[in-house]
């Protein structure tokens, strides 16, 4: 499942990030903010009608992402977020 599809409040673990599909500056920012395989995440809030941004908890931080960025992150539910 992709991070943008994750139901709100559902704990998950990052399985894979498609770094090649992200612009270099966005990939660098996401790495600096703690996105990596094996990290706990949860989608906290989303803008209405499929708009940007979505709020995501990564570890202990809350981060705003565009849906296009979240779509590049594959997750598995059941992680402790």
TrEMBL record:
Name of one Pfam family that matches: FeoA
SMART domains xref list: FeoA
UniProt superkingdom: Bacteria
InterPro entries attached to this UniProt entry: Fe-transptr_FeoA-like, FeoA, FeoA_core_dom, Transcriptional_repressor_C
Annotated Ferrous iron transporter FeoA-like domain residues: 1-77
Example GO molecular function: transition metal ion binding
Keywords: Iron
Record bears the keyword Cytoplasm: no
Listed name of the protein: Ferrous iron transport protein A
């Amino acid at each position: 499942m992709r991070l943008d599809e994750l139901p709100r409040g559902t704990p998950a673990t990052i399985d894979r990030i498609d770094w090649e599909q992200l612009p270099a500056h966005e990939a660098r920012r996401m790495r600096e903010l703690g996105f990596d395989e094996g990290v706990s995440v949860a989608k906290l809030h989303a803008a209405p009608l499929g708009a940007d941004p979505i709020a995501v908890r990564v570890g202990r931080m809350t981060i705003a992402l565009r849906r296009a960025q979240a779509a590049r992150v594959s997750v598995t539910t059941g992680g402790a977020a």
